[in-house]
Amino acid sequence: MNCLVSIAAFYHLQQNFVQTSLLDCQLRHNSLKKLMDKFRETGLNFDPKFDSNGLLAAVVTDADSGDVLMLAYMNDEAIRMTLETGKAHFFSRSRQKLWLKGETSGNFLNVQDMRIDCDQDALWVIAKPVGPTCHTGANSCFYRQVTATGLQRL
After folding, report:
1. Prediction pTM value
2. Is residue 9 located within the same domain as residue 65?
3. Which of 1, 82, 104, 150 has the smallest number of Cβ neighbours within 10 A?
């Protein structure tokens, strides 16, 4: 009987130890994650936080006028190619492939600057467009205003 009590007590202690250890690990993990997020938000390491598809939203503005030209998505290869060539590359979600803006139209975006937001999950591309940016021929993809009665061309 004393042996069974000892085994039961040992089992109980072991379960408490495992639960305490798991909780301790989880707390340490959460603390480390918070520290890493803070370092990502304030540090100088480029550490993009891609979404579950490996993409970041990229807002493109005109270097001269400041107008918003387009919104597209970049994966790690698009970022690398943009930095290497100075021409904006994006990842097409519909075609599932990398594309160079202007490759077929000649309407390239010559990148002057790239910035990342505070938690590194969105990019701001500042570029000098060569021709219209939108595939419709408009200077900006944002050429319509949303009103209470519908869309209005700007």
Report:
1. 0.76
2. no
3. 1
